[in-house]
Amino acid sequence: MAASSGTAYAVSAPSGYLSSGATLREQFSSPVGREAWAPVIGVTGTWGTLAVSGRAAWFGTSTQLWTTADGLHWNRYPFHCPGTDYSLASIAAASSSYVVFFCTGPGAAGNMSKEVLSSASGGKTVVLAGQAPLAGVGGTIAVPPSRSIVVTLATASSASWLDRSNDGGKTWFVEEVKGSGGGPPLSSLSYVSRTVGWVVLGEPGQGSVNQLLRTRDAGVTWNKVSF
């Protein structure tokens, strides 16, 4: 799911979605508490990932990208991750026009090939920005609002990493999360301002490993939030 400017989007998939595909559904959440889910007509694919920024939204698969600037009118563009056996894992938007795409490829021994693509036209044209660090399997990316050159990658394997790029994905600083031995997963990575972001370390069943981490400097440092 993803939400912004009073609209929430969700990907729904029936049992056996890998063969039957996924459908994007939207909800206008005003007034608060209203149940008004409806399918976005024509927007479907074999699984997919979501991103939002203001009224703009993106729904992507490894072969197609749907975009909207107003939540009402959707455009479809061809999309392909570079290389062989790569698939789209995550989308993040810094604005209604600047979007980054995270593609994952072949891997072994806790490593995985990762590539970051970017678009300054809302997804109409996409270019390869650079390769992300190999350490970790899978992952998600996030960018602060209106700060497109800062990209954060969350991934895990034998440990968990929050890697950071200051140049849009060309070069990276590899940062292992303290106390993440065993590779607990990272989820819900997002930025709420140009400097403040959040990520969850762990999952139900991980015991004391579970943590909520916050950054106040756009991903340079991350600290545990105490409850």
Description:
The chain has 227 residues and is mainly β. Helices cover 2% and strands 49% of the residues. The two termini are 25 Å apart. The radius of gyration is 17 Å and the shape is globular.
For the secondary structure, the number of strands is: 19
Shape: globular
The whole-angstrom Rg is 17 Å
Secondary structural class: mainly beta
Q: What is the distance, rounded to the nearest whole angstrom, between the alpha carbons of the first and last residues?
A: 25 Å
Largest sheet: 4 strands, antiparallel
Helix and strand arrangement:
Elements: E1 2-4, E2 7-12, H1 17-20, E3 22-28, E4 38-45, E5 49-53, E6 56-60, E7 64-68, E8 74-78, E9 87-93, E10 99-108, E11 111-119, E12 127-131, E13 137-142, E14 151-156, E15 160-165, E16 186-191, E17 197-201, E18 211-215, E19 223-224
Antiparallel strand pairs: 1-2, 2-3, 3-4, 5-6, 6-7, 7-8, 9-10, 10-11, 11-12, 13-14, 14-15, 16-17, 17-18, 18-19
Descriptive labels:
227 residues, mainly beta, four-stranded antiparallel beta sheet, 1 helix, globular
Summarize the structure.
This protein has 227 residues and is mainly beta. Helix content is 2%, strand content 49%. Strands 1-2-3-4 form a four-stranded antiparallel beta sheet. It has a four-stranded antiparallel beta sheet with strand order 5-6-7-8, with no helix packed on it. Strands 9-10-11-12 form a four-stranded antiparallel beta sheet, with no helix packed on it.
